[in-house]
Amino acid sequence: MSATRQARLVAVEDRSEHVFDSIRAFLRLHRLSPDPAHYAFAHRVFCNPDGALAQSVATLTEGGVRLTARDIQTLGGQIGALTVGDPAATAEPGHADTLVAQTQMQVEGFTDMVRRVRADTEDFGRDLAASADAMRAGGGADNVIVLTGLMLSRVQAAEARLAAATSEADQLREKLEEARGDARRDPLTGLPNRRAFEETFAERIQAGGTICLAVCDVDRFKRVNDQFGHSVGDRVLRAIADALTEACPEHFVGRYGGEEFIILFSGLELPAARAMLESARMSVAGKRYRLRESDAPLGAVTFSGGLTEAEPGEVLGAVFGRADKLLYAAKDGGRNRVYAG
Question: What is the DSSP string of 264-332?
Fold first, then answer.
C-alpha cells in the first residue's frame, strides 16, 4: 500500500472516530438513549455542521439548553423507543390539534359564506341599477314594485347571511384564543410550557426589575418510570407541579419538558427566592406517595434545583445555562437540594 493511500485511510478513520465521539457526547448531553433513531438524528447534525438542521440545533441549545423530545420531532427527527421523560412528546393528538382542525373547517366555511354575501351584494347592485333605469324610462308602477320587492328579498337574505357570518367569526375568534392558550400549556400538568416560559422571560427581562430563574429536576425519575410505569410517572409529575405552584404563589411555574420544571421569581432577591424554593423542596420531600391501584408505598419523591439571578438585559440562554449548571451541581452533590449562585 502506498504511503498516500495509507495516509488517506488514517484520515478517514480519524474523522469517523471524531464523528462517533461527537455523537456519543451529544446523546449523553441531551439525555438520549443510544437508540438508532437518536444516533441517526445526531449523525445528520454532525455530518453537515453548516446545514439547516445543525444551525437549528445550535440555536435551540444556545447557553447549554438541552433538546427535548418535542424539539427533535419538530426538527424532523424520530423519538427512540428507549427515551423516557416527556409523555407529551409521544401522546396522541390533543385538544389543541382538534381545535386546529375545527378552526380550519370554520375558516373554510366562513370564506364560502363571505363569497355568497358578496355575490348577493353584486346582484343587489344590479337590481338597484335596473330599478333606477326603469324609473328613468318611465316604467309603470308595477315594474317598480316588482323590482323593489326583489331588492328587499335580496337585502333580507344578505342580512341573514351577514348575521351568520358574524356568529361564525365570533366562534372562530373564541376557538383561536382557546387554541392559542393550549399551545402555551403543558397538557399533562396544566402548567405553562416552554414556549410560554420563553415569552414570559422576554417580557419580564425587558420590563426590568429583579428576576430569578430556577430549573428543577425530579430526582431519579427514570427509576420511577421503569419500576412503576409511565402512568405513575405522570402522576408524580402532576404532584410536583401542584406542589411548586402552591409553594410559589404569584410567581411563574412551568414545565420545561420531561421531568424538568422552571420557576421565574419576579421582584425577589436571590436569598428570598431560594427560601421559597427550599420550602417547596422540603414540602415535596416530606410527603410519602402510595400507588393508587394497590396502596403500596411509592416512597419519597424529591427534586433538585439550580437557582440564579438574571442580570439586567441578560439573554435567556445565559441565565438558563447558569441555572442548569447549578442544577447538575446539586445532583452531583447528593440530590434533594438547591444550589444558588
Answer: EEES--HHHHHHHHHHHHHHHHT--EE-TTT--EEE---EEEEEEEPPTT--HHHHHHHHHHHHHHHHH
Residues facing residue 264 across a β-bridge: 213, 252
Phi/psi of residue 262, nearest 5 degrees = -125, 150
Instruction: Kindly state whether residues 175 and 208 are assigned to the same domain.
Output: no
Residues annotated catalytic, as ranges: 259
Packing angle, helices 270-285 and 230-247, rounded to 10: 140
Instruction: State the residue range of the domain holding 204.
Output: 194-340
Asked if residue 43 and residue 126 are part of one domain, the reply reads no
- Global pTM value: 0.54
Mean pLDDT over 285-314 rounds to 87
Summarize pLDDT for 144-163 with one digit per residue, the tens.
666 667 667 766 776 776 67
Based on its alpha-carbon atoms, the radius of gyration of the chain, rounded to whole angstroms, reads: 30
Q: What pLDDT, on the 0 to 100 scale, is given for residue 26?
A: 80
DSSP 8-state symbol, 299 = E
C-alpha cell at 272: 428570598
Could you tell me the sign of the dihedral formed by the alpha carbons of 154, 160, 162, 164, in that order? negative
Among 136, 154, 182, give the residue marking a domain's end: 182
Q: Are residues 198 and 336 in the same domain?
A: yes
Q: How far is CA 53 from CA 75, 110, 295, 336, in A?
A: 7, 38, 47, 36
Q: What are the backbone angles phi and psi of residue 93, rounded to the nearest 5°?
A: -55, 130
- Residue 46 counted as domain residue: yes
Q: What is the tens place of the pLDDT at every residue in 291-304?
A: 877 777 888 899 99
